[in-house]
Amino acid sequence: xxxxxxxxxxxxxxxxxxxxxxxxxxxxxxxxxxxxxxxxxxxxxxxxxxxxxxxxxxxxxxxxxxxxxxxxxxxxxxxxxxxxxxxxxxxxxxxxxxxxxxxxxxxxxxxxxxxxxxxxxxxxxxxxxxxxxxxxxxxxxxxxxxxxxxxxxxxxxxxxxxxxxxxxxxxxxxxxxxxxxxxxxxxxxxxxxxxxxxxxxxxxxxxxxxxxxxxxxxxxxxxxxxxxxxxxxxxxxxxxxxxxxxxxxxxxxxxxxxxxxxxxxxxxxxxxxxxxxxxxxxxxxxxxxxxxxxxxxxxxxxxxxxxxxxxxxxxxxxxxxxxxxxxxxxxxxxxxxxxxxxxxxxxxxxxxxxxxxxxxxxxxxxxxxxxxxxxxxxxxxxxxxxxxxxxxxxxxxxxxxxxxxxxxxxxxxxxxxxxxxxxxxxxxxx
Length: 430
Ligand SMILES: Cc1cc2nc3c(=O)[nH]c(=O)nc-3n(C[C@H](O)[C@H](O)[C@H](O)COP(=O)(O)OP(=O)(O)OC[C@H]3O[C@@H](n4cnc5c(N)ncnc54)[C@H](O)[C@@H]3O)c2cc1C
Ligand code: SF4
Ligand code: SF4
Description:
Layout: H1 3-6, E1 9-14, H2 25-29, E2 35-37, E3 42-44, E4 66-71, H3 78-82, H4 93-98, H5 103-127, E5 160-169, E6 179-185, E7 198-202, E8 216-219, E9 233-239, H6 253-259, E10 266-273, E11 286-292, H7 296-312, E12 320-326, H8 335-339, E13 347-352, H9 363-369, H10 371-378, E14 383-389, H11 391-407, H12 412-421, E15 425-429
Parallel strand pairs: 11-12, 11-14, 12-13, 14-15
Antiparallel strand pairs: 1-4, 2-3, 5-6, 5-10, 6-9, 7-8, 7-10
Helix pairs in contact: 9-11
């Protein structure tokens, strides 16, 4: 029998609440549902986590890579972890011995548990019902030609300051739903970002339990050389949250704060985050962008970078194909500017789900209509697929891709595995 288990000691997996940006990536990734969250913290259930490490590299902050040697009977419960504001220190040898754990057993736990859990992890994955899980196809590696991304230059404990240099409603004025295009300038502070990365904004004030607000994440909507080329600025696409995911009225803390910012105001920024939702840079690489609402932010960034490259005459671009969904045309961010992009530059497909008097159409419906073109792209190893927007869209979109592949005579298991392995299918939903 394994010494560590015999001695009642485990290496407990914990998330650092001071660094975690509550992005949900780990919860979506964990194959055995060991991760959960409340309004305060993301936590790992000690009785379910098997140390498979699948969540470690996708976490954009590294906050999930924490381990504590604990007597089994004193393992931190999720209720306890929900209340944490910082990680508890490692128990001392004396504390472990007082709990009946010898130094030898503690050492065995540190060394043996990951090895032991690899087998458990495999068994757990195999025992999970074979239901369709879109998250399993999402790549955790970037395309091979992606540029190097800087991350975590500014941590939540030491944010930097940016100045608002632009803020306008980029959806049609006069409607309840409102999305703003915000431009932030970093002055002389280094804050290099790539298309597909995100930044965190910390709203001023404290939450209901008197704690400083945690950072909310927003995708960068501008290309790598700035919203205004040559300036140290980034743009964001921020939707006011006025109702929660269930449709009940609520005033989102950070989104409303950001949408109400005035030119000249300053904001606290952390990040940048993200190392895999990055665009390919090799000539003739194709980009298929599938998004809803503010999921358009990274797509705007990629499209604009390709547009600038094309304008410079130095880049032989591949195809750009966009599937963009919103409830109504009025709610679609950047509707006007999208219309002015040349047809031979980008293939735009718009779906509206709440246009009065018209049948509901979602991005998946458009993808099925364009099955022949998508199948050709799925067969081409230079194609990269990006999905961003509402969590509820993810499964439908990946299922549509699977159906397109299958109907074209492709084996989805082979195609899906290649897309993941080669960093060619990226999912970012929230
Ligand atoms: C990787 C990533 C990228 C993101 N990019 C963007 C972006 O580009 N633009 C953008 O506007 N947002 C983006 N978000 C969402 C953003 O981080 C916030 O969750 C959102 O702005 C709500 O924050 P809040 O403080 O206003 O609401 P909170 O005060 O945190 O929440 C208020 C209530 O609304 C619910 N809620 C939270 N978010 C939403 C939502 N999106 N829709 C409906 N209900 C919600 C909460 O569950 C809660 O009940 C992104 C999130 C992630 C993880
Ligand atoms: S190590 Fe594996 S089982 Fe544990 S939380 Fe991470 S993904 Fe889940
Ligand atoms: S920052 Fe890391 S630990 Fe926190 S929710 Fe995201 S993936 Fe999970």
